[in-house]
Amino acid sequence: MKQCNNCRAQVDDDxxxxxxxxxxxxxxxxxxxxxxxxxxxxxxxxxxDNHSHYDSNNIYNATSSNQSQNTDGSSxxxxxxxxxxxxVGLILFLIWHSDMPLKAKSCGIGALIGFISNxxxxxxxSISWISALFY
Length: 135
Description:
Elements: E1 2-3, E2 10-11, E3 34-36, E4 53-55, H1 64-70, H2 76-84, H3 86-96, H4 101-134
Antiparallel strand pairs: 1-2, 3-4
Helix pairs in contact: 2-3, 2-4, 3-4
């Protein structure tokens, strides 16, 4: 599988344009081309002969979901925040799991490790406290 240079999405090897952001996927081409479908106010496709239109200027993204994909990436800072505050990490994971899966995964892993660490630390503290009572 190929990776889009623009949005970093995984696409099939035989694909010429990224289905997520519309960028051209050929390695030799320096031009950044964006794919757009044009719809009228009723949601009907307004393309002539159902062909796609391309904009070589790439001024803006075709859809708002592509904007979130362009800002998606794993984040060490969010993982650390989620480690120390597992509830915050869980909330961020639930909010971002469909829009920004890489950030959501960072938050989820940090929250899970933080939660397990808190349980293990609580067990160790309980054992040491109970042993201090009897000695």
